[in-house]
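Two folds, back to back.
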Amino acid sequence: MRYLQDQHGFVLTDHCDSTLFSGLLGASGYRVDMTAAEVGPGHWLRRPTSYPECWGCGKSRSTISRDMLLGVYWWAWANKDRGVLERMWDYGVSHFWLMCRGRMFGMDTVMNPAMIATLAELIYRLGGKNHWFARRLPTWWSVTEDPSKYYVNRLTALHLGLRLALGMPVGLQGSRNLAKMRKLWPDNPLFAWACRHIAAARNLVRVDTIPSGVHSADEYPIEREFVRAQVNV
């Protein structure tokens, strides 16, 4: 697998989650040409267009997914690129928020209210149009203890963490779910990070020091190792 950055700055391009993890990498300060995965205005793929498209070659269940677009959110916010977000908004509106192709008429690519609301907030915070109704759409957050679906928890923490960074409300349900993840998986640094944002903003929960010294080529080592441990019990 490729863990080094390619010519676009993307990582994990052998896999079909590259846009998510490359977006997060770019948000942390590394050089990433995020638009390498934008095949048309606001139309995104799971990895740069110079690679085979994942759904077309049978490696994914859709050409894009909400978690990949969350990586674009993070990158655009960190790099103050409102244009990327506005193109995504225009594409979503013109396609009834069906963001690409996939199984069952693209069900995995439909933007949910939380994603639409966060996109509207990002555009507004970066000086764009105030889509005031979209910014107030209702949200719902998930947490699962099913080891085969732990990625859901990762995405919940990343999305809530971004909303907190924007100063957006996450609601009582969102706050409780972050606290629940921190309690169930106390060694997970991502959940500790998200809870620390909650504590700083609202003084709702208290967390200890985030674990340090994790070094791995895996895209999310804490989550992967925990799943392996659960399976081997």
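---
second:
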Amino acid sequence: MTPTYRDQAYPVIAIAWGRTIQLGVLTNYEATKNGNADPQLELDGFYICDGTTIDQCFFLSESLLFIIVNKKEVRILYTQNFTPGIFEPDYIA
């Protein structure tokens, strides 16, 4: 689940680079599973790590991300608490 998509579980991808994680949601999974539509990925929710680089990112379970920062620090993130929307490079954290 993401900040906007809270009504049910959707397939989600977490894309991490630098200090940022952006979530992508496959919003029409049922239609694509049945072959009735092409996949539609919407970006919804981002997280900016405070001053440190994200080295690795893994899903632990639905809505829980496990990240490693600075090659030694572990953080657990709840995806529904991410900032809603799409990350913009000029965003001030």
